[in-house]
Amino acid sequence: MGKLKQKLPLYWRLMRMDRPIGTLLLLWPTLWSLWLAAKGIPSVKNLVIFTLGVIVMRAAGCVINDFADRKIDGSVARTKDRPLATGAVSSREAIFLFIGLCVIAFALVLMTNPLTIKLSLGGLLLAFCYPFMKRHTHLPQVVLGAAFAWGIPMAYAAEAGSLHENIWLIYLAVVLWTVAYDTFYAMVDREDDLKIGVKSTAILFGEQDRLMTGILQILALYALILVGNRFELGLFYYLGLTVAGGLFAYQQWLIRFRAREACFKAFLNNNWVGVAVFAGLAMDYYWR
């Protein structure tokens, strides 16, 4: 027990519980989907299930990501002190922790319905595959986007009992948005990644990184406008999208010199994009 008590802070860091930004970026689109499925009043049960599920699966994703990167994180300035990179946590411990978190997440999903349970298998596969993609493709951010957006069909299915065909528009919007903000994140590590041979969209886009992330943000915003049209949303929703568009412009201004700290700040700022869209959506349903 004494050894476990010493390890708990290390496991906490390995699950990135001390850095909630990833959880928030995963949570906001899930809440968008719940609100759309329920037309503004989701069940408390599903709200609790998916909030806890987001926390647990993001933690599991961080653990398997660090396991996959355990031999290269030591060569990257931002990640060299991570528990697996330093040897403070063993690979075996990380695998057991990942399995335990997945079991907890699956137990939560079992409290939903058969369609959501089936969809959860796709989410688990995406979460497991993503960390290994950066060795084989310059598009790991696309796989991350697919994983981060998978809570959308799951939440909608849990609340509505079926999948609306237009839910995939939200899915597409979130994939595009994720690729944009995770490219900002990858721009922070670009110099280190080039040295160790890790691939990313930041490397693929090269000098066109600002242009490409800008295009992705515009496409994401356009997809969300289509969502508003298909789900017959009103003024408050579009005001939320206007704020999100302003935040995208601010992020482009932040990365104009491609400075590491500024790119990371632009990445973090995307939490407020999620807040803006959710606030607009929630207010739109509330004031009907």
Description:
The chain has 288 residues and is an all-alpha fold. Helices cover 76% and strands 0% of the residues. Helix 3 (44-68) packs parallel to helix 6 (114-133), helix 6 (114-133) packs antiparallel against helix 7 and helix 6 packs antiparallel against helix 8 (151-160).
How does the SSE layout of this entry go?
Elements: H1 2-14, H2 21-38, H3 44-68, H4 83-86, H5 91-109, H6 114-133, H7 140-148, H8 151-160, H9 167-188, H10 190-196, H11 201-205, H12 209-230, H13 235-254, H14 260-268, H15 270-286
How many runs of DSSP E, i.e. beta strands? 0
Our Rg estimate from Cα atoms comes to 19 Å
User: What percent strand?
Assistant: under 5%
Helix content: over 70%
Kindly report the average pLDDT value.
95
Structural class: mainly alpha
The largest pleated sheet is described as: none
Q: What is the straight-line distance between the termini? A: 54 Å
What general outline do the C-alpha atoms trace?
Answer: globular
Q: SSE string, helix = H, strand = E?
A: HHHHHHHHHHHHHHH
Poorly predicted runs are: none
Count of helical segments?
Answer: 15
